[in-house]
Amino acid sequence: MKSRSATDTGEPALTTDAREALEGAGISRRDFLKGSGALIVTFSVAPRVAGAPAQPSPLVLGAARDRVDSWIAVTEDGRVTAYTGKSELGQGLFTAQMQLIAEELVVPISRVTLVQCDTAITPDQGTTSGSQSHPENFNHSNLAQAAATAREALFRLASARLGLPVDQLTARDGTISATTDPARRVGYGELVGGRKFDIPLDERATRRPRSAWTVLGTSVPRAEIPAMVTGQFEFVHTVRVPGMLHGQVIRPPEVGAKLTGVDEGSVRGMAGLVKVVVKKDFVGVVAEKPWQAIQVARRLKTTWTSGVGLPDQAGIAEYLRKQESRDSLVVDSKDVDATITGAAAEVKATYFYPYQVHGSMGTSCAVADVQRDRATIWSATQATHPLRHTVAAVLGLPPENVRVIFRLGSGCYGVNGADTVSYDAALLSQAVGKPVRVQLLRKDEMAWENFGIAYVVDQRVGLDAEGNILAWDYEAWTPTLGGRPGYRTPGNVITGSLVGFEPEEFTPLTPAPEPTGRLRNRSNAAPPYVAGCVGGQCGGTGIVKSERVLTHTVRSPFWTGSLRSPARLQNTFAHECFMDELAARAKADPVAYRLRHLSDPRLREALAAVAKAANWDSRPSPRTDGRRTGIAAGRGVACVLYEGENGYSAMVAEVEVDQDTGATTVKRMVVSIDCGPISNPNGLKNQVEGGALQGASRALLEEMTWDDTKVTSIDWRTLKTWSLASAVPAIESVLIDRPDAEANGAGETSITVAAAAIANAIFDATGVRLRQAPFTPERVKAALAARPVT
Amino acid sequence: MSAISLTVNGRSYTVDVDPATPLLYVLSDELQLRGPKFGCGLAQCGACTVIVRGQAIRSCVTPVRTVAGADITTVEGLGTIDHPHPLQRAFIEEQAAQCGFCLNGVILNAKAFLDRNPKATDEQIERAMAGVLCRCFANVRMLRAIKRYAREMGA
Asked: What is d(CA A540, CA A538) in angstroms, rounded to the nearest whole number?
């Protein structure tokens, strides 16, 4: 009906994107298959089996990242097709990359086609994660550099054609003309259309300067939104392949339980049942229709051993401290103990951040078409190329026979179930020899995802008589188990583990090796206020030179993974709350006190800019009106240089705390952000707003929970989150454009500072310091009740 | 299995399914519509919302037999990419989306509410969105888009 799958034409399969790109480029499928034209890839065509859908056989011919043709093709009509290995995830990257190509090649955006993340077509750029897409593709390598190289190549060709030196030529709308005589002109299509550039990326090729930008740097609307709001957009959830069946999985009832039996008789004869699939501890069912698959999965009787048992949730912080650990040292000036001993005062505090849940709005989904020796997977993975290798391992196929095609999923915020469900669909499709779609049930998504990590942080400083920091000692414990599968480790997620793959090995290591080379900030373990001196070079953002930063990573009882701003958020919560405590102790204004300890000019400016925009009430915290009942209002601040090098943000949060109920309402959030040159201002604002609110929801409400055998936060009743009816704050963004700086990450900075800014605002309002998130009404009320009587 | 007749976005369909099947699966699998989505299957998030008899309902928990013969509107039934409904247009103009998965539920809940309450205050609009989630937290823009449409409608 509305199928747009790759195999619905009965011809050798192409993705919708690829086909549209080809057709839009005026290249016929026939030419494509002959390997002619501007194309960079071809497919070998497997012999057709009667009645079976054709299978693409990917055979990448030169998607090497150092060749311009891997990234850019210009067709005879002058259209530009670009290929990227960084995907849209809801962050607006697809449109921003379209802008980049239009800008560098000086063509209208309407004449750009972008193909994203398909292992048969696009360059391998690893994983779209870690706020790395803006730095990787918008600076001086990869997509941006390929586009700049292509533009310069076009200028050289035009110079030869028009008999004029390059510096007397001007590009406009896909045409290059003599600057003084626009009638002397030649179009890109005439210069290179239908042929390859056949040149390497030129590291000397010059990006168009920020001052010349007309497309990049402007608020081009997101390309997907019109189709999304009208229900036309193809998510991975709406990929339909002819003959597709539907699968469901049966996960263990307890963490660590092993399968002891499957009673297939319990579902025999059920409507639509195609097959019960068992492989080691993996159990799944395939049925003709999705609802049938759910019914069968519910009815299927399986037996399991007991689980491994889980530590008491209330004692998780102490549990983490007691485990064998792998230690890493970010900095150690060797004088911290002596400095603190000799200081006027020593201050200590411990912070705890809980395990949290990605909780994608739509549960994870994938479609797999696995035939005898080859497979095609439609997946919302953040890592198409790595996933190709791990799917191949799970299926026992060579990686070159696996094609992974990206389709946007529900916002993932990190390692949701996108990879694991790709394995689920692949295993079930392999078992039945037909395409299978799997969309997880809510409980299976939320009980078995790779959770955001808990953190226990002990902070300790030595202060001088004025309250200035002389030495900072940080020691943290954080759990790990699994994570992104990468190219080699399918056992890092539940399905890979169930079929027998091991998660990444955990090797204890104590003591930590001495840090060498330049400062590696290790997910903001280093506080913003230390100098970060390693080997005589100081790479930190602060001035405190007596410094020790030690992290103990321990084995987690649960799967863990990168949840938006992984570890950076948790560390920033601990640093920025502790800094607030120190400012209060020194009776100093929290902004001024921070500025006293910061050396990095851009971080100082981000902080100053947000204070100015928020009309910051400069005074020490807490407020001193002394009322202990009713509504108390306060403001708090926090700042970060993400990962110590990848984007600046500062936030002022204004809250009201109901001292009778403990309920916190965030009234206003003002957020500054500096990510270098801004590619799309409105898109950046959207990221700042979403990050701030998601950070607030996580800070105030969200906590993954478990009992003695299993995870118990498995739906939207057992995991609290804000709905659209919740009282969300007004948000103001302060965008700091840096035309001459490198492009930095932008998607994870505002969320990083939210919990600390809110906790500091609660302190300002009430005098109560919350050192454990989330700041639920119960927790706030208990802390209020424990206030000393004055 | 039994034959059930449905009217979806003004078109008539007859499907042969288990009458207990939730409407969502019929819309997304049998009719291959892309608008209504499975978010939780528990009527907790709104992603599966459709409008039946003027009410926004959660199609993931609505047996198809209970809506046989009724007029069902999905988000596809409001407008098209070239001619979006004014509410859809407001979302485009406000760029009120991130991943976009929740949009179906957000738009249809707002539509059903404002159809019945065209003069709703901002506060009433916000209250009406209870039980509708956006995990990217594009809340501010979405509420702005809905209120913009409400104002345009009232003007």
From this structure: 6
Question: How far does the CA of residue A750 sit from the closest CA of chain B (Å)?
Answer: 13
Alpha helical stretches, state H, A323-368: 336-342
* Contact (CB<8Å) B41/A441: yes
CA B5 to chain centroid: 20
Mean pLDDT, range A407-432, rounded to an integer: 97
Going by the DSSP 8-state scheme, the letter that residue B65 receives in this structure is G
Phi/psi at A235 (nearest 5 deg)?
-85, 165
Q: Which of A647, A695, A95, A129 is nearest to A412 (CA)?
A: A129
Share of chain B above pLDDT 90, in %: 97
Under 8 Å between Cβ of A572 and A756: yes
* CB A781 within 8 Å of CB A770: no
Question: Cβ separation of A229 and B74 shorter than 8 Å?
Answer: no
Task: Spell out which residues of chain B touch residue A728, defining contact as CB-CB under 8 Å.
Answer: 137, 139-140
- The answer to whether B6 touches B71, Cβ cutoff 8 Å, is no
Q: What is this structure's pTM?
A: 0.93
CATH node for A16-229: 3.30.365.10
Note whether A16 contacts B: Cβ–Cβ < 8 A: no
Q: Please indicate whether, in this complex, the C-beta atoms of A231 and B75 are within 8 angstroms of each other.
A: yes
Structure tokens at A653: 């949060």
- Work out the widest C-alpha separation in chain A, in whole angstroms: 87
Question: Residue B132 and residue A723: Cβ atoms within 8 Å?
Answer: yes
Q: How many CB pairs under 8 A join A and B?
A: 202
Distance CA A610, CA A733 (A): 9
Do the Cβ atoms of A604 and A595 come closer than 8 Å?
yes
Domains of chain A, residue spans: 16-229, 236-306+358-447, 455-785
Q: Which fold has domain B2-77?
A: Ubiquitin-like (UB roll) (3.10.20)
Domain A455-785 matching CATH 3.40.50.1220: the answer reads: no
What's the CATH number for A236-306+358-447?
A: 3.30.365.10
C-alpha span between A564 and A756 (Å, rounded): 16
Which helix or strand (DSSP H or E) is residue A639 part of?
strand A631-641
The burial of A198, by beta-carbon neighbours within 10 Å (0-12 exposed, 13-18 middle, 19 or more buried), is given as exposed
Rounded distance, CA A128 to CA A554, Å?
26
A510 CB-near residues (< 8 Å, 6+ apart): A325, A326, A327
Smallest CA–CA separation between A440 and chain B, in Å?
9
Which own/partner contact pairs does A46-52 have at CB distance under 8 Å and 24+ positions apart?
A: A46/A374, A52/A371
Exposure of A308 in the CB half-sphere (CA atoms within 13 A): 9
- The helix (run of H) or strand (run of E) holding residue A155 is helix A142-162
Residue A351 has pLDDT above 90, yes or no: yes
**Do A14 and A29 touch, CB atoms closer than 8 A?**
yes
Mean pLDDT of A677-695: 98
Strand pairing class (A259-263; B2-8)? unpaired
Strand partners, A375: A370, A402
Contact A493, A450 (CB under 8 A): yes
Q: Where are the domains of chain B?
A: 2-77, 86-154
Residues A264, A242: Cα–Cα separation, whole Å: 28
CATH architecture designation of domain B86-154: Orthogonal Bundle (1.10)
> Do B2-77 and B86-154 share a fold?
no
Strands (E), A362-468: 365-371, 374-379, 402-406, 436-439, 455-463
> CA–CA distance from A412 to each of A432, A451, A467, A698 (Å)?
29, 12, 43, 15
A140-196 confidence digits (pLDDT tens): 999 999 999 999 999 999 999 999 999 999 999 999 999 999 999 999 999 998 899
Is the distance from CB of A476 to CB of A263 less than 8 angstroms? no
In the numeric block, which tokens belong to residue A32? 């494509």
Distance separating alpha carbons of residues A217 and A623, to the nearest angstrom: 41
